[in-house]
Amino acid sequence: MMHRNFMGMLFAVVSTISLAGCSSDTKETPRADTAATTASETPSATASGDTILIEMWTDGTGNYFKPNKIEAHQGDVLRYVLKAGVHNVHFLPDSNRIKTGLPKASDMLQLPEQTYDLVVSMEPGEYYFQCDPHAALGMKGELEVEDKD
Questions:
Q1: Per-residue pLDDT tens for 63-81?
Q2: What is the pLDDT of residue 94?
Q3: 110 with 83: CB under 8 angstroms?
Q4: Is the pLDDT of residue 122 over 50?
Q5: What is the pLDDT of residues 2-28, one digit of tens each?
Q6: CB count in 10 Å sphere of residue 129
């Protein structure tokens, strides 16, 4: 009986110490439009155009990007916003043959309203992206990078 009480007390102390290590005295208020934003995967690209919102969903109709067809120009920012589920964004080389300058796969977005910003730096043309864990379920999209007029 004494062993059980000791283990319970030990667990409580360790848990308290662990939680204390996770807290912070400073709190940062995220901007409403960029809560938990992931940095661009194309650091050399400069955002100079529009911001295009693309929602990432898991719901009763499936897993999908909304919209899943996007038109953009170089310098525009694609802002992927997680609405429900756990998703990432990946421009696979296999789906984009003969294309260079593809961004790396994003990290997994896990928190609602978490965002991933991608500055469009690819040459004009059609590009295909997907959510890796849900690609077989149809979570794919198409980006058309257009010439600036």
A1: 999 999 999 999 999 999 9
A2: 83
A3: no
A4: yes
A5: 555 544 554 444 444 433 443 333 333
A6: 28
- Of 118, 117, 139, 130, which is closest to residue 58 (Cα–Cα)? 139
Tell me the pTM. Answer: 0.70
C-alpha separations of 2 from 6, 13, 103 in Å: 6, 17, 58
Looking at residue 17, its pLDDT comes to 40
Query: How far apart, in whole angstroms, are the C-alpha atoms of residue 123 and residue 102?
Result: 10
Backbone angles phi, psi at 33, to 5 degrees: -90, -5
State in Å, rounded, how far the first CA of the chain is from the last one.
79
Residues 6 or more apart whose CB falls under 8 angstroms from that of 11 comprise none
Of the candidates 141, 146, 134, the one whose C-alpha atom is nearest the C-alpha of residue 72 is: 146
Cα 21 from chain centroid (whole Å): 27
Burial of 88 (0-12, 13-18, 19+ CB in 10 A): buried
All structural domains of the chain, each given as residue ranges with its CATH number in brackets, are 37-146 (2.60.40.420)
Please, are residues 76 and 120 in contact by the beta-carbon 8 Å criterion?
A: yes
